[in-house]
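dumping the sequnces here before i forget
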Amino acid sequence: MRVNNIPNVRTCIAPLTEDVTVETQDTFASWPKETHNTSATKADACTVDVLIVGGGPAGLEAAVQAAKQNAKVLLVDENQQLGGQLIKQTHKFFGSKQENAGTRGVTIAKELEETVQDHTGIELLLESTVIGFYEDTSSDYFTFAVSKRKGYESSIVKVQAKTVIFAVGAMENMLLFPGNDLPGVYGAGAVQTLMNVYGVKPGNHVLMVGAGNVGLIVSYQLLQAGILVDRVVEAAPIIGGYHVHAAKLRRCGVPIYTRHSIKEIIGSDHVEAAVVVRLDENWQEIPGSEKTIECDTVCLAVGLTPSTRLLSQMGVKMYTIAEAGGFVAIHDDYMQTSVPGVFVAGDNSGIEEASTAMIEGKIAGVAAAIQTGKTSTKQAKELLDIFASELASLRAGPFGEKPRIAKQKIQTFWRKNQ
Amino acid sequence: MNEHADVVIIGGGVNGCAIAYYLSKLGMNVSVFERNYLGSGATGSCGAGIRQQWSTKENTELAIQSVHMFEELSDELGEDIEFSQGGYLIINHTEEELAQSKKNVKMQKTLGLDVSMVSVDEINDIVPVLDVNGMDSVGATFCPTDGHANPFKTTFAYAHAAEQLGANIHTHTLVKDIKTKNNQVSEVLTDKKSVKTRWVVDAAGAWSSQIAKMVGISIPNKPFRKEVLATERLEPLFKAMVISFKDGIYFSQQPEGNIVGGIPIPEQRSGFYELPTFSFIQHMSETLTRYAPALRDINMLRHWTGYYDVTPDARPILGEDSKVRGFVHCHGFSGHGFMLSPMVSRMLAEYISNDKESSVLKRLRLNRYEDEDIDMEQNVVG
Ligand SMILES: Cc1cc2nc3c(=O)[nH]c(=O)nc-3n(C[C@H](O)[C@H](O)[C@H](O)COP(=O)(O)OP(=O)(O)OC[C@H]3O[C@@H](n4cnc5c(N)ncnc54)[C@H](O)[C@@H]3O)c2cc1C
Ligand SMILES: Cc1cc2nc3c(=O)[nH]c(=O)nc-3n(C[C@H](O)[C@H](O)[C@H](O)COP(=O)(O)OP(=O)(O)OC[C@H]3O[C@@H](n4cnc5c(N)ncnc54)[C@H](O)[C@@H]3O)c2cc1C
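..and the predicted 3d for all of it:
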């Protein structure tokens, strides 16, 4: 869309203000009509001890801990609001006797946000995306370009940091099938954002693909919003999500079909129906088992992939680890990657949960502060040990199995590389 | 495996693949070794502009002949290389530059090129978005038959056509050493196999000096990191490539709408530095928006780096070495090796197969640097 003469504005994330002219734009953006007649100006710049990329639970905790250790922190997030995934998670968090079990994600986000805002050592840069890692021979610090949106315009800020913590989370997976590019096909995360953050109904009749926690929780939230969920299909032979979430759905009469998947979508300019199909033990479609389901929305909840592009640009060592969700940076016990001064925390270091993301964030925050020399090593080291044991106990249960394996593999690769 | 080839070509860029094609066409048995994938060197990161407006006669001649070949290339190779001729508009900023332009245009015209001086008032007829004052321009030159082609498609088209004629192209194969006998090349060793041969073509781009070193030859080339950016797509509005030798900037609009261009950074240094620089973003956006203020609110989409393989006179080093027989130089293109590739490759193939050495080739041999005065190419950008 074109807003106030500026082309290519992503209006889905730009805040609406008064007196704006919004025009639709076809494939090509038309050239700005009147030009400002000024050339680009010098980029703003800032220098910090710890740059934190991503303001989800991992990034927020990292910021608090690093600032507590006297480091000068800059926290950058591309959204208007801090909290990452948490701001759409209106459900009560699942967990045994852990600190945040029973609390809603949005509430946790709010609390973290307040702590961060109260801290004088933390500077925030919202609506800003870290877009790349750059060489700058005039400095020993890491140099990043940050694209900062202001209204409908954007500019570039040069950020130089002694250390950096990546807490950029993950991306939703897509499935390949005919019609997957039609309007009405969503990632489950997008549906959750539309409903719970913006209060927009994504559709009226939904087919959910995937019965992991995300698929189950979002299905239930769709029902709560008065939307019909036809069924949930799941390719695996068993339901991947927690029993409580599956049971809630069943009680509402929504069937969950395991060993089923989506084959194609019918519709010319939007989703009109979807064809689901049964799978055999080898995950192959069983011919003749196709069923056409009328729906206007197909929601894909088929897993997440860690976001690692910036890490890969920085040349950190990475491996593919299925249990972590794909390609991830290997790191030591204190979340430091193979490039000294570069840390990871949260979903981008392996898909897991908010609770573990928060502790990884705490560890990375303290460890980065130690690296900058802003804190006494002994005292901070004690903190690191406390956090490490919290993390271990969180992963101890049966549901912690997958991340436990992922982290063990990361550890093995790490040692091999030493 | 012990193989034999008439010619071994090192490097699977546009030049290596084009030479493979022309040699195969002349009936020779060719093997190409590329350590990564085809186009993974300068070719895949280049601006792919094709310009005939040069200050030295050699470059102008080679470029004019290459353009004639580009015009027929899609048909000849059987694959579309997306060649288009939108012209090159060279902006002049000073009276001295204008004088040099007049001299160049005169020389270029004697070689038959359709090129002319353009007054300040006429600039916007060719490229509407340019701010004549912002650019600080006093005039320009324009050649309507200059143009652009898709570097990947050109390289692949040459490679496919060569393979159809029997060439063996080995990607992901690193050349590790070259053996000689009595100052004559005899064998090429790679990480996978070795091949006996009497001819080796060094078409390894910025890495050519590493290859030359294998046979004890030292060449004066230096690698320079160069950066390019692409903006978001805008309605296609102009077809010409805009360049300035003073500012070093070049940019054009791709058929898909993106503005693609580059500029050298002030603190440029030679070496294999792979990372993009912040200085480039700053410098490029300042200069680009001075030239075309309408781009002020357009975002950069991508930014990447590649290497120029630069010689002391900014002209390529071509032809058989005078000390090591059978070792053929094809490098040092100094930022304009894509546009010259058809003609250069054909000439080298003819030399290897028929011992035919054109006068241009003779003038671009390595031993020219032993002479006192070499003719420096002035018209360099990026
Ligand atoms: C439906 C659903 C239910 C869940 N339920 C639970 C639960 O009950 N309990 C639990 O513990 N966990 C739960 N989770 C998981 C939990 O939400 C995630 O594991 C957690 O949010 C990961 O935190 P993070 O900080 O790593 O990443 P995120 O929360 O994803 O935050 C990353 C942030 O970084 C920003 N960012 C990314 N790239 C850039 C960049 N280049 N520049 C600037 N900013 C950038 C993103 O916009 C985002 O705001 C659930 C997840 C979903 C989807
Ligand atoms: C940013 C940029 C913009 C440019 N713009 C233009 C332009 O607008 N117009 C123009 O005409 N030119 C331009 N150029 C220059 C042009 O790209 C090069 O001159 C041309 O592509 C050179 O092609 P080549 O085949 O000789 O070398 P390359 O494409 O560099 O190929 C050399 C190959 O050799 C391989 N290799 C190296 N060592 C070994 C080994 N030991 N074993 C096996 N393989 C090896 C490399 O992997 C590489 O693929 C530009 C260059 C850059 C970097």
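Chain A touches chain B through 31 residues (CB under 8 Å).
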